[in-house]
Amino acid sequence: MCGRYLSLSTPEALAEHFSIDEVRTPPLEPRHNVAPTTDVYAVIEDEDRRLGTLRWGFVPPWAKSLKDGPRPINARLESVATSKMFAPSFERRRCLLPADGFYEWLDRGEGRRKQPYHLADRDGAPLAFAGIWSVWRDRSQEDASPLFSAAIVTTEARGTMSEIHDRMPVILPSNLWRDWLTAGEDDAPHLLDAVAAMPLPRLTATPITDRVNSVRNEGSELLEPGTVAD
């Protein structure tokens, strides 16, 4: 799964890295501890490629209210094309969610505290999480503004990640960005094969202290190496 990540790059840096045609968002505050329900950068493409923001925590279009049911932050790759909640977005509304790294926790066994890890691209480049997005409107309010939300697509852990957790975000290489963003409904199922065949992401994994456990903690000190005492 992916429950926390970093968002440090500026819109200008992301625009260059992801070949953005239009930036449609003011800068978000740099975050070392992005948590669910916050607005995050997202790349969407139809006629052009745009950088905007989506709320992290998927709200399906048919939800009666924001209190109606769970707001999943992750969607499993294995079922994203068939899930009642996610399939419509997988067919038509896919996005990239830029991240400057993410966190995962190693379960060290009964009675021992989990060890958090910071994971990032070996070369320091932004990661491209595969995402899906949705548009929800409060039908009880005639003039309500739409809510745009997203979930990160996850898959079975491989490589470095498999030593820490059994799940990981789908991290797309640059040669799959356009396919993920633009494939039509008929081609969308083939994306699953392409993702399954993509090479392992080049990640570094650094054990860090448990300050990252609290969403209230923020700042570069979260990245300081450390181990958690039993």
Task: Write a structural description.
13% of the residues lie in helices and 32% in strands. The chain is mainly β and 230 residues long. It has one domain: hypothetical protein yedk fold (Alpha-Beta Complex), CATH 3.90.1680. Strands 2, 4, 5, 6, 7, 10, 11 and 12 form an eight-stranded mixed sheet that branches. Strands 8-9-13 form a three-stranded antiparallel sheet, with no helix packed on it. A two-stranded antiparallel sheet has the order 1-3. It starts with a strand and ends in a 23-residue tail after the last strand.
- The coarse overall form would be globular
Distance from first to last alpha carbon: 24 Å
Count of separate structural domains: 1
Second rung of CATH, namely the architecture: Alpha-Beta Complex
One letter per element, helices H and strands E, the order comes to EHEEEEEHEEEEEEHHE
Strand content: 25-35%
Q: What share of the residues lie within helices?
A: 10-25%
Rg: 17 Å
Helix/sheet category: mainly beta
CATH homologous superfamily grouping:
SOS response associated peptidase-like
Number of strands: 13
Count helical runs: 4
Instruction: Please summarize the sheet with the most strands.
Output: 8 strands, mixed
CATH topology: hypothetical protein yedk fold
CATH class: Alpha Beta
- Average pLDDT rating: 94
